[in-house]
């Protein structure tokens, strides 16, 4: 029985400042996998001394973001007053809820030397009951995340639960999100415990049934089947999925179950230049810039 439902290739997207991402979701052929609606594979990108990432303050509603790095560092600031540097192996979980603003920049200490940035950023749709949840932020150091070792495989549970372990990240629906490091010729089994599942190839390649998936490929699995995954060479994979939360609308940085919620958020952000009208979004301490509302819908 074929265990593959869909294969998707990430599309290169230039975010400016020397950073190109492979945008895997959303895709015309696959809106999401479980609650995952947005998947960006960042880099790897090499920066010279003095260079780095500068993502100015921008808003979100109705989603949670998960940041996970393999190389480099990012400094997160948000309208809750959070100031947090993330380094490889750590997890940042930002719950936007009814509204949050944040920025991401390369720390000054990292810019002082040549450096590389490589990681994953994902958006998680919130269950409808939590769309208007108060915004929140969590940082979890690498040492706090469960690690499972199998023959030739190291699995880190980044968020949600898998392989009998649960991450401390405060997600709000059943979730699968794991980083898997495979040695050459190693294999492991993705069980059917989660309703929807996919495998993303970060580096190297993976074989599922008779299909070889190379770097930048998302392999969406058929539900209800245990699936054996193997690697001919050393490879890095991401497992992602979980329970879907229903239809969601995406517009720029906003996710919502209704278009009215998105329209209201757009209207508020359009007035963000007036500091007295910042309402639910608030300001980011230490920041004096922001990304204006795009003139047309979309991201």
Descriptive overview:
There is one protein chain. The chain has helices at 108-111, 259-270; strands at 4-9, 11-16, 19-25, 36-47, 54-60, 63-71, 74-78, 83-86, 91-95, 100-105, 115-125, 136-140, 147-150, 153-162, 165-166, 175-182, 187-190, 196-203, 205-208, 211-214, 217-221, 227-230, 235-242, 249-251, 254-256. With 299 residues, the chain is mainly beta. Strands 1, 13, 14, 15, 16, 18, 21 and 23 form an eight-stranded antiparallel beta sheet that branches. Strands 2-3-4-11-6-9-12 form a seven-stranded antiparallel beta sheet, with no helix packed on it. It is globular. The two termini are 37 Å apart. The mean pLDDT is 95.
User: SSE order in H/E notation?
Assistant: EEEEEEEEEEHEEEEEEEEEEEEEEEH
Derived from helix and strand composition plus strand pairing, the structural class reads mainly beta
Count every helix, treating DSSP H or I runs of 4 or more residues as helices: 2
Share in helix: under 10%
3D shape: globular
